[in-house]
Specification:
It is a single chain. The protein starts with a helix and ends with a strand. 38% of the residues are buried. It has 7 helices and 24 strands.
Length: 349
């Protein structure tokens, strides 16, 4: 009997201890902070009030500033140039010989220094008119001089303002040493009574979803040859990490002289146009209106396109529809129909 009572006492103590332990655990759980699973949320996308019309990049700044287009020298003695990395659109077209010149169109960014500034040709003026841009050059051909002096084109020329709005740099020799600043362009516009505000029509740009659907053949290394000499060729290498094209001339990357900032491009448009010589000096006439064949490089891919002149601008089309641009900066190489795309453009190493 005593043994039975003893066993029951032990069981009662064990049961009491177990209940007490459960109560302690319950109290601990009540006082311990609960583990909350983190809720992942997509980062809110920044919303902008406006979009720059020539780049498709969002901004909270006003976008009604008038574009200005500057003739920039591309002779090997003029490299590296100043300000090209800030241009929204650059046209590269042959002048005389094997040397191209750039028509750099600025609107979203205004560089402190631009140059070296070179002389005007009539087909560059026509391309500038497509943006209603203030045209800036230093010098002119006879045809260009007649157009610029007609009063029909707002322009600032170093032939008039050499040593005032334009200055001569000591690191180059003439004619590769003329430079201008955005500040002086504004001063020149004010002197001439030109407005620097304008409503600028926009290019068509791809949406974020459409960027993933870009199709075409691989185009990670593309050469555009204006002659048999490499120093006058333009080379585009796709930087997959940055999702942009880098540009090279004569084996050297195209960078800003003052800051070493590289030219990085989101669209490279290569189009062929009819060229013909008009004098013994080697000046050319270039047909910028008729339309023709081309390639559009985007995101490391190339697609064949047809170009059209739409209200003065060179615009890519495919299957009768305008092809949207990747938001960002655009470079347009204009090559003669002879040798044309087949003879002037090569892909690969």
């Amino acid at each position: 009997m005593k043994k039975t009572i003893y066993i029951l006492g032990i069981l009662l103590l064990l049961f009491s201890a177990a209940c007490s332990n459960k109560e302690v655990v319950k109290q601990q759980e009540e006082h311990e902070p609960k583990q909350v699973q983190p809720v992942t949320k997509d980062e809110p996308k920044e919303e902008f009030e406006h979009v720059f019309p020539l780049t498709g990049i969002g901004t909270n700044e006003d976008v009604d500033s008038r574009p200005f287009a500057v003739m920039v020298n591309n002779h090997p003695k003029a490299r590296p140039q100043s300000g090209l990395h800030m241009a929204d659109i650059v046209y590269e077209v042959l002048a005389e010989g094997d040397v191209t010149r750039f028509l750099a169109v600025f609107q979203s960014e205004k560089p402190e220094i631009i140059g070296p500034v070179r002389s005007a040709r009539d087909y560059y003026i026509e391309l500038s008119k497509g943006f209603d841009a203030l045209y800036v050059a230093h010098g002119w051909s006879p045809e260009a001089k007649q157009i610029l002096n007609s009063g029909k084109i707002d322009n600032i020329n170093g032939m008039v303002y050499d040593g005032t709005l334009f200055w001569r740099a000591d690191h180059n020799v003439a004619p590769h040493n003329s430079y201008i600043s955005f500040e002086n362009i504004v001063k020149g516009a004010d002197k001439q009574g030109y407005s620097m505000e304008d409503e600028v029509p926009s290019f068509s740009f791809l949406s974020e979803n459409e960027l993933d659907g870009i199709e075409g053949t691989a185009a990670e290394h593309v050469r555009v040859s204006y002659s048999s000499r490499d120093i006058f060729s333009a080379v585009y290498d796709y930087n997959a990490e940055k999702s942009k094209y880098e540009r090279y001339s004569g084996g050297d990357q195209t960078v800003d002289r003052e800051t070493s900032t590289p030219v990085l491009l989101d669209n490279v448009l290569i189009v062929e146009m009819n060229h013909r010589f008009i004098d013994d000096y080697g000046r050319r006439a270039v047909d910028v209106t008729t339309g023709g064949k081309g390639f559009l490089l985007q995101k490391g891919k190339a697609q064949e396109i047809e170009w059209k002149n739409v209200e003065g601008r060179i615009v890519p089309f495919a299957n009768g529809e305008e092809v949207g641009l990747v938001p960002g900066k655009t470079w347009i190489n204009i090559i003669p129909t002879t040798p044309g795309i087949a003879g002037a453009v090569s892909f690969g190493n």
